[in-house]
Design goal:
Elements (H helix, E strand, L loop, with lengths): L15 H4 L10 H5 L11 H4 L3 H16 L8
Length: 76
């Protein structure tokens, strides 16, 4: 007896920045940065936030810079 193989269709990640045609991640845009921070103040992983690797690097740098400038809190 042959086992049937299940074919799973992968959902493609749709990057937030590419979908909304945002070219640069700005550290002064607090509303956008807050979308990618959890309630404890940690940066959300790209698997959960569905951001591409290129924009995840830019996003983490922008969040860290905004924290240094006291625009975002470090934690609770």
């Amino acid at each position: 007896m042959k086992k049937k193989r299940r074919i799973f269709k992968k959902n493609k990640k749709k990057c937030f920045f590419r979908k909304n045609k945002i070219k640069a991640v700005d550290y002064k845009d607090i509303d956008t940065l807050k979308l990618f921070i959890d309630k404890n103040g940690k940066i959300i992983h790209s698997r959960f936030s569905k951001v591409s690797a290129k924009y995840q690097r830019r996003l983490s740098k922008a969040i860290k810079l905004a924290r240094q400038m006291a625009l975002l809190p470090y934690g609770i």
